Structure formats: structure tokens, C-alpha cells
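Lab manual, section 2.4: Encoding a predicted structure.

Procedure: take the sequence of the chain (175 residues), apply the prediction step described in section 2.3, and record the output as C-alpha cells. A sample record is shown.
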Amino acid sequence: EKYSWDKVQHDYPTIHGSGYIEDVAFAGFQTDACGRVHRMVSTNPENPDTVHPSYFKSISMTNVDPGNMFRFHRPKAGWVTIEDCVTMDCDGLKHAMLHDLDGTLLGGPSSSVIAQAEYTSPNAYGYLAPEKYLTTTDGTLRSEAEVITEYGIVRDGCSLDASVPGWTCPPYAGG
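Recorded output:
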């Protein structure tokens, strides 16, 4: 049986997967005369469950517009159903991460681009913190505001790029 490379197979994805992109030359990722934006790296918009991290090394780029480098898709509001992700967004697309290992992709080693994981689609019921997470060791239930200061992936020092949409992050101590 043949499977398309770009269609999700509705089985659970591999745990601990990752992608390594090394010694690759990207060229010509620009907006064409008709206004179509050609992206250099993109998530699969049909993948609800998992987007493994990607690691880049020894990358070269020619005629690549900075705004056309990355595209992270957001979860589809239609995935918020009892049969799929119940009352919340399917999180796969919200956890996309691209890591520059040597500075050839983003200009600084250990820099990253991460998806805007704090995004919530219109059909989702927002964030639902597990009750155990909100409960102290003595059984006291705390409010979400007492425990959670922000949602998404930790992004200290990162800047939001709405064209991705995602966060571009500087190198972290320790890489």
C-alpha cells in the first residue's frame, strides 16, 4: 500500500522523533509576482498530533526573503471535537521547534524559532489546567492565576514574528 509523504496517516506518531537538516542550500524562497509566498520551511497543516523538533546545520541561503523563511500552521478549529481533541486544540502544530546548531540558519548558534504555543483556536475552551497541577501537597486547590504566569513554551528573550507565526529566540546559556 502506498502512502503520500504529506498526508497524516491517523496513527499515533513516533515518540522522540527529530529531523536533522545539514549541508542544504535553499534558494529562491520569495513572494512571486502573483503575491504567493513561497516558504523555505513549513509545518504540515494536516498534522494534528506531533511536530518533531528540527535541527539545522551548515545551511546556505540564496535569494531567500527573511519573511519567507518559516511558516508554522495553527491547529484547525474543526479538530476540537469529541472524536479528535475533545475540548482543546490538538497540540502538535503548537509545538513546532527549529533549532540552529551553528548559526547558519538564524545568524547565531543555539538560536531557535518556536511555534506560538499559547495560541488558542476559536472553538477550543481555552486552557484547562489539570486539577492535580493546581493542588498543593496539603490538598488545597489554588487558582490558575496563582500557579500559571503565562501559557505556551518558555520564551524568555524571544521576539514574536507574526508572519511565522512564532517566536525567534536567542541562544540560551548552555546551548
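Check your result against the sample. The radius of gyration is 18 Å.
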